[in-house]
Amino acid sequence: MQDTLKNLRLIITEDSYKLTIEQLSEKYKKTRDPTYLATAFEKVFKLTIKLSQKYYGLASQDIASFALEKLDYCLLNYEESKNIKFITYFYTILQNKFREETQYLNLQKNKLNYLCTSYEFCLENGYDKSVLNVIEEDIQFKNLSEKEIEYCKLLVLEYSNLEISKLLDVSLMTLCNWRKKLRQKLYKSDIFNI
């Protein structure tokens, strides 16, 4: 984040720094001059840092990238006539982006935990049932055998591995082998996008 600011400061001019962020928005809409984007970034830098502290798992480079992306969007789309301050507008847009990215990261981690452990383990460690159901719905059953699909469905229905082994009439060791193959198939099919 600091490196991004350091690089952008090289193109900020005294004249652009004297402008309000609303004025920067008007000039940026007309010219798309990166000087105005850089100046606006300088002006929202501390706000961005403070907001990012509420969200865990985002790297500094990602925070800077998201902030620049959303700042560009806000500068181009801000309308003073709507009686909303630019800072409030930007804060809301950026907060939504941080929340979206954090939820995505958490979902990916939860998917990995879900496949590497059991449904019971996930519940015991505070996973919400609705999150586990979303994960189950999100897993595409591409190239999975009928038994692997059935195994996933039974996990989501809160059956233990012992119960699943009895229902499917297989040993726990066989179930562990299925789980291993299942993980390999899901990783190969890029379901996790990690």
Relative strand content: under 5%
Largest sheet: none
Let me know the average pLDDT: 80
State the helix count: 11
Estimated radius of gyration? 24 Å
Shape verdict: elongated
Determine the structural class based on helices, strands and strand pairing: mainly alpha
Which percent range fits the helix content? over 70%
Spatial separation of the terminal alpha carbons: 23 Å
Number of strands: 0
**Segments where pLDDT lies below 50 for 5+ residues?**
189-194
Describe this structure in words.
With 194 residues, the chain is an all-alpha fold. It has 2 domains: 2-102, no CATH class; 117-188, no CATH class. Helices cover 74% and strands 0% of the residues. It is built from 11 helices and no strands. Helix 3 (21-31) packs across helix 5 and helix 4 packs across helix 5. It is elongated. It starts with a helix and ends in a 6-residue tail after the last helix. The model is unreliable at 189-194 (pLDDT under 50).
